Amino acid sequence: MKRKDEDIEKAVANGYMKADAEFLKEEAVSGSCCVTVLIKKGDLIVSNAGDCQAVLSVSGAAEALTSDHRPSREDERERIENLLYVLYAEWLY
């Protein structure tokens, strides 16, 4: 990964973390999700958090650019459990 790519990745992650901190201040019990798309010099840079998905239309057909972060996905469940969160009925506690 190039240095500039690492800077973009860090900036997006930092933005997601700041947004999450603001939501947590509200003490809401609902979740949130986010998709970010950056077009830079002809490159499409896509990220997501939560159960939302970026989709691109290619010749009229939908092509997924991201994967939902859902506890029903085995790899996501394992990632969450490794962070010591408790999963209950597909929700995080």
TrEMBL record:
The keyword NADP does not apply. SUPFAM superfamilies: PP2C-like. It comes from the Eukaryota. Residues 1-93 form the PPM-type phosphatase domain. Its EC number is 3.1.3.16. It is an enzyme of class 3 (hydrolase). Pfam families: PP2C. One of its GO terms (molecular function) is protein serine/threonine phosphatase activity. It catalyses: O-phospho-L-threonyl-[protein] + H2O = L-threonyl-[protein] + phosphate; O-phospho-L-seryl-[protein] + H2O = L-seryl-[protein] + phosphate. InterPro entries: PP2C, PPM-type-like_dom_sf, PPM-type_phosphatase-like_dom. Keywords: Hydrolase, Protein phosphatase. PANTHER family: PROTEIN PHOSPHATASE 2C, PROTEIN PHOSPHATASE 2C 2-RELATED. This is protein-serine/threonine phosphatase.
